[in-house]
UniProtKB/TrEMBL annotation:
Gene3D superfamilies: NADP-dependent oxidoreductase domain. It comes from the Bacteria. Transmembrane segments: none annotated. It comes from Levilactobacillus tongjiangensis. It holds the Pfam family Aldo_ket_red. Residues 13-268 form the NADP-dependent oxidoreductase domain. The lineage of its organism: Bacteria, Bacillati, Bacillota, Bacilli, Lactobacillales. This is Aldo/keto reductase. InterPro entries: AKR, NAD(P)_OxRdtase_dom_sf, NADP_OxRdtase_dom.
Amino acid sequence: MKTVKIAGKTVPAIGIGTWHMGDQADQRENEIAAIQAGLAAGARVVDTAEMYGSGRSETLVGEALAGSKRDDLFLISKVLPENASKQRMEASLDASLRRLRTDYLDLYLYHWRGNVPLAETVVELQRLQTSGKIHAWGISNFDVADLDELWALPQGDQAAANEDLYHLGSRGLDFAVLPWQREHQLPLIAYSPIAQGDAWGHQLTTNAVVKEIAAAHGVGIYQVLLAWVIRNPQVLAIPQTSSVQHMEQNVAAASLTLTVAELAALDEQFPRPTHKESLDIL
C-alpha cells in the first residue's frame, strides 16, 4: 500500500474527501456508513472544511468518527479566507473542533487566498499550532507564485502540505507546482482526483485506454484514476463517495501500481502540459 508522510505522520495515500457530504438529509446514513467503511478498509485521512455545507460536513464527519480512536485518525479541516485573520481564526477553528467532536486537528489548511495579508495568516496558524489546537498547518489552492511568497515569509516554510485540484484530466500541476513541491519536500493533497465522475466533461471514465487498464488489473475505472494520481511519492488523494462499495474500492487503489507502459499510454491520451497553465480551482 502506498503511503505519504505528512506532518511527521505516515498515512495511506488514499484518504476520504467529504465535499458535498451533509448537504442532503436523505443521504446522511449512507454518507456516515461510507466514511466508516473507508476507515475500516484502512484509510486514516479524513478531509473536510468549514465551507462544506456551512459546517454540515464537519458535523457529519464528527458523527461518523464518534466511535473511532482519535489517535488512529488524521483529521484535516480548512479555514475560509475571511476567517484567516488574527481576530477571527481561533474562533473559526473552535467552531470546527466542536462540530468535529475533537480537541485538535492534525492539519489545518488556509482554504484559498483572500484579503487578509498572508503574513498575518501564517503567524496565526503558527500560534494555533503552538497552542496544540492544530498539530500542523498548510495551504490549499496555492500556485507556484503563492508558494514562493509563502516560503519568503518567516516560518512560511513550516507549511506541511498544499491541497490543489489534480486528476488525469487536469494536469497543470505537473509543469510547475509538483516539481516545486518535490524540490521543497512539500506533500500534495489532490482534491477531486476522479474529476467528480466526469462532471466537468473530462471523459476519463469513458476513455478506452483507461478501460483497458482497469480490465487488465481486474479493478474499477476509478481505481485506475486514483492509482495514476498517487503514482508519484508524497501525493495523497482524497476522493469523495457516499457508496460503501465505492469507498472500499477507492481505499484499495492505494495498493494498485500501474506499469511504465500503462502510464505512458495514459500520457498519450492525456498529455503532460508543456507550459505553465492557470491553476484549476473548483
